[in-house]
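Example record

The entry below shows one chain as it appears in the dataset: sequence first, then structure tokens.
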Amino acid sequence: MVFLNDNLWEVTRQHLGENGENVAIELQDPNGYFDANVRRDGMIELHLYHNVPKGETNARGDGYRDTLHLADLEDFIVRLQELKQFAQEFFDGQHVWQDQQEDQQDEI
């Protein structure tokens, strides 16, 4: 497996076209809570696993996943960043939002 971005993602499968060109790639995080199928046309299918990593179940058997189908990753990232900023301002840096504000200030 090939690791990218300081081990945030590992390549699990590569899909090649008729001429040997890359047409899609499958990735997962090493902890098993995310995996993605990324196509060269920009489409992304992102799976988020809850409670337990991919392929595992806990005693209650409640391991499950959400699937996001994304056509515009940049727009999705911008929307998440704006959502985070709005929540930080709305909750005035309380609880979990305080820690995230401090992390952002450390990055500056």
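Notes for this example: Residues 73-90 form the longest helix (18 residues). The beta strands are 2-4, 9-16, 22-28, 34-39, 44-50, 64-70.
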